[in-house]
């Protein structure tokens, strides 16, 4: 049997989480159109008869503006030393810039095989895709190049088959039915944060963290969940709550549906919003919120 680890890296909003969810055919990593959605390294597990692939979906590599941002970049870069293959994912609908060059320069110093994943091919004609492949191949050395659409699932099966060819012989690290090693509590808080990201704009998405306060099964097998949403300013608290609490109700309702699907139980979800000023720059707060790596 073959088994190994694959890191998915790239700039924010390249489609890394969408790719992971497409490979696993279920939602493991949250998705939004806001950059820097992923904050922790998310593990997804694909088990087939002849292979087990463990995917590490990392935060986007970017120039950090606060302690949380540095934490995110450190996770992405440190992951490169731990894997058998690197998927370097590129949003081909965006122009090449200094951020991409920074990643390419980093990869040039690493011996791990790099698969260049050119995402969002569904937006281009065939001749444009060929032009993109040629242009990107000239910018670095890549073991393989794959044009894909993570959203549509185009070329994903071929990508997985080629990945298996590069994996070493190894053990089965997880049971056949495992799809992630993330605790349920972590997935739940991320699902709540996803709904906030989709319902707010401007500075709100990056100023939000969610922590689970309570989760217990009560009568009629209903699971009661209490969670706190942290923001950095009073004005942000008002935005997340919304007029007469309508936005917070919407966030809770949408999150509850996903959580019920995840747990297979009826869920009662209660949300609170609290202000924790400048939490993204405070190491003790970051640790309490689950960002525990030494910065």
Structure description:
The protein has 295 residues and is of the alpha/beta class. It is built from nine helices and nine strands. About 2% of the residues have low confidence.
Q: Quick check: average pLDDT?
A: 83
Helix content: 25-40%
Q: Can you identify the CATH class of the largest domain?
A: Alpha Beta
Query: Sheet bearing the most strands, described?
Result: 6 strands, mixed
Count of discrete structural domains: 2
Order of strands, widest sheet: 2-3-1-4-5-6
What's the CATH H-level homologous superfamily of the largest domain?
A: P-loop containing nucleotide triphosphate hydrolases
**Sheet/helix structural class:** alpha/beta
CATH topology of the largest domain: Rossmann fold
Strand/helix succession: EHEEHEHEHEHHEEHHEH
Distance between the termini: 37 Å
Which radius of gyration do the C-alpha atoms yield?
A: 20 Å
- The CATH architecture of the largest domain can be given as 3-Layer(aba) Sandwich
**Shape field:** globular
pLDDT < 50 stretches: 34-39
According to DSSP, the number of beta strands is: 9
* Oligomeric state: single chain
> What's the total helix number?
9
Assess the beta-strand content as a share of residues: 15-25%
């Amino acid at each position: 049997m073959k088994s190994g680890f694959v890191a998915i890296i790239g700039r924010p909003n390249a489609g890394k989480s969408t790719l992971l969810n497409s490979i696993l055919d279920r939602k493991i990593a949250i998705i939004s159109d806001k950059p820097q959605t992923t904050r922790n390294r998310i593990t997804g597990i694909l088990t087939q008869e002849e292979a087990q692939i463990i995917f590490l979906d990392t935060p986007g590599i970017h120039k950090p503006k606060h302690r949380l941002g540095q934490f995110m970049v450190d996770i992405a870069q440190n992951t490169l030393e731990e894997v058998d293959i690197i998927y370097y994912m590129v949003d081909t609908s965006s122009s090449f810039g200094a951020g991409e060059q920074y990643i390419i320069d980093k990869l040039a110093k690493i011996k791990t095989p790099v698969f260049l994943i050119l995402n969002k091919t569904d937006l281009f004609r065939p001749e444009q895709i060929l032009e993109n492949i040629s242009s990107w191949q000239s910018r670095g050395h890549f073991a393989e190049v794959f044009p894909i659409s993570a959203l549509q699932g185009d070329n994903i099966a071929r990508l997985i088959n080629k990945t298996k060819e590069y994996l070493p012989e190894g053990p089965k690290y997880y049971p056949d039915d495992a799809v992630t090693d993330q605790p349920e509590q972590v997935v739940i808080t991320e699902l709540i944060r996803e709904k906030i990201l989709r319902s707010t704009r401007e500075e709100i998405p990056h100023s939000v963290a969610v922590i689970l306060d309570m989760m217990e099964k009560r009568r009629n097998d209903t699971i009661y969940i209490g969670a706190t949403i942290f923001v950095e300013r009073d004005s942000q608290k008002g935005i997340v709550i919304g007029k007469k609490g309508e936005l917070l109700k919407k966030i809770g309702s949408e999150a509850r549906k996903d959580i019920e699907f995840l747990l297979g139980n009826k869920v009662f979800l209660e949300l609170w919003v609290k202000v924790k000023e400048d939490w993204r720059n405070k190491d003790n707060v970051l640790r309490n919120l689950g960002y525990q790596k030494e910065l």
